[in-house]
Amino acid sequence: MLKGRTALVTGSTSGIGLGIALSLAQRGVNIVLNGFGDVAGPRAQVEAAGPAGLKVGYHGADMSQPAEIAAMMAYVEAEFGGCDILVNNAGIQFVAAVEDFPPERWDAIIAINLSSAFHTTRLALPGMKTRGWGRILNIASVHGLVASAQKSAYVTAKHGLVGFTKAVALETATTGVTVNAICPGWVLTPLVQKQVDARAADLGLSNDEAKRQLLAEKQPSLQFTTPEQLGELAIFLCSEAASNVRGQAWSLDGGWTAQ
Questions:
Q1: Which of 58, 80, 106, 154 is catalytic?
Q2: Which of 36, 66, 85, 248 is most deeply buried (CB count within 10 A of its CB)?
Q3: Do 196 and 170 belong together in one domain?
């Protein structure tokens, strides 16, 4: 049921977003990538993951800019005929105590991690409703369910994203569109690797020991969740089996939120 559909995955040139894009491509879903940095490499990976004839596009919209988001959604409509699967994954992080938190960093995190999902969703929903089918997956975080110190903006944005997910799921409850959130724990993305590197440097640890300590603080499994695992969960939430899964915040966190 997924082959030939089109997915827009924001923040998909690396990490979780790329992992989800690859899983969708393997099922024959056409992909629109979005993000900064190297584009050619991720695009080649996605093309290679899918069957012959898979269509892969890219739009470099800055997810903090509503006008650029609107241009990206228009691109998906013009080049692919619309967005069937919307994965709101774009995100940034900054760590500081609230009294030291730069206001511009707060504004950027709220814009990219939360408001961008509103802008993509409001533009994708009319077409999904018209076609009678759609999947919206908001990549939140365990920090959409619980908090950590020095991450006030990120925690606020991710809690907001979970709330947004629930509200839109209720608005679409009698339609063929489902809206859910995925809440990963520690995933060894470039964003998390920066935190590992900082911990190693600050405490004089090896990178492996810094990873172990990071996991031990929060994630009982002592294992990182992988982008591939998140991709497979996304496939399930897009499937017919999940057609009545609505408004859920699905944790994949090694036991973090079970504590």
A1: 154
A2: 85
A3: no
